[in-house]
Prior knowledge:
Number of domains: 2
Low-confidence stretches: 1-22
CATH superfamily of the largest domain: Zn peptidases
Largest sheet: 11 strands, mixed
Helix content: 25-40%
Distance between the termini: 35 Å
Mean pLDDT: 94
Strand content: 15-25%
Shape: elongated
CATH class of the largest domain: Alpha Beta
Bound molecules: zinc ion
Number of helices: 16
Number of strands: 16
Amino acid sequence: xxxxxxxxxxxxxxxxxxxxxxxxxxxxxxxxxxxxxxxxxxxxxxxxxxxxxxxxxxxxxxxxxxxxxxxxxxxxxxxxxxxxxxxxxxxxxxxxxxxxxxxxxxxxxxxxxxxxxxxxxxxxxxxxxxxxxxxxxxxxxxxxxxxxxxxxxxxxxxxxxxxxxxxxxxxxxxxxxxxxxxxxxxxxxxxxxxxxxxxxxxxxxxxxxxxxxxxxxxxxxxxxxxxxxxxxxxxxxxxxxxxxxxxxxxxxxxxxxxxxxxxxxxxxxxxxxxxxxxxxxxxxxxxxxxxxxxxxxxxxxxxxxxxxxxxxxxxxxxxxxxxxxxxxxxxxxxxxxxxxxxxxxxxxxxxxxxxxxxxxxxxxxxxxxxxxxxxxxxxxxxxxxxxxxxxxxxxxxxxxxxxxxxxxxxxxxxxxxxxxxxxxxxxxxxxxxxxxxxxxxxxxxxxxxxxxxxxxxxxxxxxxxxxxxxxxxxxxxxxxxxxxxxxx
Length: 488
Ligand SMILES: [Zn+2]
């Protein structure tokens, strides 16, 4: 193991990462195997072929759709073909929201069509649509501050722009508009809500995405009144008024029309809505540990996608990266000490139903799961490795970080931001990791018809697999069991 350059150590603030070989908490043979796995993945991991297979042979796979079942069969067969020891299906109760037809047009002062997609969980308009005057807001705070009289009987249009950032930080700020515009507008008397797409592109592709935060239902009396209870007890709701996202160029166009100063009227017709329950599955592939099979290292992504594209970057890439990492470990002459588990989570997009079902099915996860990480931020290069572990696990984690360093991955801190599907299990007290990807162009395609295989670069996927395979192998092989941070 070579020493890291001093500039890196200063930048990352991890002086303890300088441990020489002799005192490394991970055996030298394991480090050597991890480096081999890393380097051979970098030379060609097979992840692109898996991404191609899922996006071509299944295509778009919205939770609860006919394609959901095909995706589950695909994942089951793929795990088996890649040499996993055991493939398990765990049930997930999925509410089904159907996208039928959707259309919108300016009717005055200058009639023209608009390009839009209904937001997930939007309620539908009456047959024949609705027509009303538009009232525009620069951002969600302006809508919140508006008097009811300014909104009543109108279509609210929130034109808030998203900022492009490598770490996707602009999404967290902007996405609240998607989940709030219909609720806030509707409570003030609006008849529908339009938003500028939560996206960074200038293509005429609207971005869909969930229009309700189901997590809020329990906290909000108004939302609770119209909530639907699923058979497993979870609560869902459709939006208070119909809600859709305009593509960025269409939002620009509407901005200009409103700026002309005459009343702008829009006709909106959305044939969408909740249609019932579906019984789907998380698909789990295991490589059973040779010494401590009950201790689990979990990596994965989500199998479902939104419907307009083929879900290549979101999240066929994450499924492929983690499956390919598992497949490389499956080819070793012996299994790692602990079980390596790859999970293809059901229904992330419409409310994290797969992630919650997994946590519910594994209430003992704090004891049995020793490391979790999720790939769900496209197909860009990984540039940072963060952890959320107990202090006494840091030497082991830093040793893993040193194996990732030649991939141009810096060791970050111990306050990792955790992926969405593994969020519920992380809350049970499981050590978590984040392998952060460069997402500078991720929100150009995210949740659009433009999320297709051509956006995925095979070499970048290989670097991702190289990182995941080295990380997962070492977490599964290290003598020291990684523990979660002690609760204060
Ligand atoms: Zn995703």
